């Protein structure tokens, strides 16, 4: 079938890249059929049955849709990071922000997350950064081919917040990630401004799965869910991973304070969707909200205002800082809130390797405040699960 979003889009954008979804068992047969149509393939994802083409005509899109074994043909859309400039008024270092989730209490009890790999699907990371040394890194960027450098800095900042090493910065500020988990960075957003294709994001999620990540952080998305969560490729992928016990933590988006402004794939019912609050626990004005369309989102909230953490040296984010070039920056967004929760989930996965996203939501429903469409059940704290 054609994704309904793609079908509508054909009238306004007749030539476009598509993401073909099919039964993974039929991978060789489907790829062979696409090749026989003489269509250029941009990327393939054998594990979960996806292939992306370069831009093709509506006629060819319909031919692909008619191939045996094809489930859905999606638009291969642009995804972006969810980050805003800092206010510049105050820094909130991760050594302090992590305590809003009671991360230090978990570590005192012996739960550091060291046995739980955290995957970060983002703009990459600076592997030489003192907070990020030892991290694994890969790239699914199709152009420039498999580029790994984090030229934006967003991915390094997110990774440092989730599981960056303890470090004392040149400005005399202490920073430390929520957990001490091994990090797996997969770059799928790039081109300087932090953008990528749906296929690159799906491929990055696949790499996280194949390399053993038990928690995946997605501080990214788009404003519209492609065809609804039942057919949206990112939402379908999250459902698949959640079914295999992987916790996928997703940013709500930065389109607040409007109602029903949750981004995709934050709208996924299988994701743990994160809103942003400031150091006082007050919701950030930019944090996306739920509403009539998304009555069950977001799920939780975490610090996401002026978060001071490591970033890629010489990156777009780094050079915008007052102390440019030192590899540390304060930035805001639900992108910054999300890795706080991903780090906490790694601590919870060490305590109970079988814990799932629905179980975390159930505990928050019991221990958090009454769920609303602004901060969900509120900030998840270690003591809720201890």
Automatic annotation (TrEMBL):
Q: Name one GO molecular function term.
A: serine-type endopeptidase activity
GO biological process terms, alphabetically, are:
proteolysis
Per its UniProt record, what PROSITE patterns does this chain match?
A: SUBTILASE (PS51892), SUBTILASE_ASP (PS00136), SUBTILASE_HIS (PS00137), SUBTILASE_SER (PS00138)
**Domain Peptidase S8/S53: start-end pairs:** 113-378
- Where does this protein come from, organism-wise? marine sediment metagenome
* Family per similarity comment: Belongs to the peptidase S8 family.
Entry keywords, A to Z: Hydrolase, Protease, Serine protease
Which protein, by its recorded name, is this? Peptidase S8/S53 domain-containing protein
């Amino acid at each position: 079938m054609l994704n309904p979003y793609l079908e509508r889009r054909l009238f306004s954008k007749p030539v476009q890249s598509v993401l073909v979804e099919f039964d993974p068992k039929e991978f060789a047969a489907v790829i062979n059929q696409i090749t026989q149509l003489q269509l250029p393939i941009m990327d393939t994802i054998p594990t979960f049955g996806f292939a992306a083409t370069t831009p093709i005509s509506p006629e060819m899109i319909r031919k692909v849709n008619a191939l045996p074994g094809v489930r859905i043909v999606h638009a291969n859309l642009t995804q972006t990071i969810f980050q805003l400039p800092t206010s510049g008024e105050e820094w909130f270092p991760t050594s302090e922000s992590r305590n809003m989730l009671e991360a230090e209490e978990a570590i005192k009890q012996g739960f550091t997350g060291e046995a739980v790999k955290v995957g970060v699907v983002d703009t990459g990371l600076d592997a030489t950064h003192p907070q990020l040394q030892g991290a694994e890194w890969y790239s699914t960027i199709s152009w420039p081919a498999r580029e790994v450098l984090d030229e934006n800095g967003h991915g390094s900042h997110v990774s440092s917040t989730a599981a960056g090493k303890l470090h004392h910065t040149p400005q005399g500020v202490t920073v430390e990630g929520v957990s001490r988990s091994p990090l797996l960075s997969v770059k799928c957003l790039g081109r300087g401004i932090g953008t990528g294709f749906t296929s690159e994001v799906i491929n990055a999620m696949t790499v996280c799965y194949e390399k053993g990540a038990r928690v995946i952080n997605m501080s990214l998305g788009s404003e519209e869910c492609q065809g609804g969560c039942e057919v949206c490729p990112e939402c379908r992928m999250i459902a698949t991973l959640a079914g295999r016990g992987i916790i996928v933590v997703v940013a709500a988006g930065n389109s607040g304070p409007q109602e029903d402004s949750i981004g995709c794939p934050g709208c996924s019912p299988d994701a743990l969707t994160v809103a942003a609050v400031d150091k006082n626990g007050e919701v950030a004005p930019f944090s996306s909200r739920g509403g009539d369309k998304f009555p069950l989102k977001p799920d939780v909230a975490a610090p996401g205002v002026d978060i001071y953490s490591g970033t890629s040296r010489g990156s777009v984010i780094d050079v915008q800082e007052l102390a440019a070039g030192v590899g540390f920056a304060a930035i805001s967004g639900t992108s910054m809130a999300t890795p706080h929760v991903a780090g906490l989930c790694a601590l919870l996965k060490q305590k109970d390797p079988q814990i799932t996203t629905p179980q975390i939501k159930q505990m928050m429903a019991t221990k958090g405040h009454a769920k609303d469409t602004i901060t969900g059940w509120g900030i998840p704290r270690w003591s809720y699960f201890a």
